[in-house]
Amino acid sequence: MELHEIHPHLKLDNTKNQLVNTNTNEIIKLEPRLVELLQHLIEGQGNVVPREILIKAIWGDYNSGDQLLTHSISILRKAIGYNLIKTVPKHGYLIEKPSKKFTPRVKWRISNLQLVGYVLLLTFVIKVLFFSHH
């Protein structure tokens, strides 16, 4: 397994096409091209990686490479959950070097079982409040 550090507690496992949060053991699967894109950004960590280089490396001479790059960066930003990928207008993108002052964005997650519980509780409360006066 080859892990590339993106930030403290966030690693890219390019052999399995996934991100690993070593704090929570959360695994996020990525498409191979997104992994390749993220690898290019990690290799240039702390430096701007020009859009043209990223497009050529990932999509070759494909005409829609610019739109695909923009869309792929958006997907990576959502997957990472951190504001790590910076846009440098008219130049490219960069991932900042890891720092000790790092606060992950909290993601609210709810399981299906919890959701069912909340719906049942809400149904009960509505029934008691509105139908118990009869």
From TrEMBL:
It comes from the Bacteria. Residues 1-97 form the OmpR/PhoB-type domain. GO terms for biological process: phosphorelay signal transduction system; regulation of DNA-templated transcription. It holds the Pfam family Trans_reg_C. Keywords: DNA-binding, Membrane, Transmembrane, Transmembrane helix. SUPFAM superfamilies: C-terminal effector domain of the bipartite response regulators (SSF46894). GO terms for molecular function: DNA binding. The chain crosses the membrane at residues 115-133. InterPro entries: OmpR/PhoB-type_DNA-bd (IPR001867), Sig_transdc_resp-reg_C-effctor (IPR016032), WH-like_DNA-bd_sf (IPR036388). The keyword Protease does not apply. Residues 1-97 bind DNA. This is Transcriptional regulatory protein, C terminal. It comes from Ekhidna lutea.
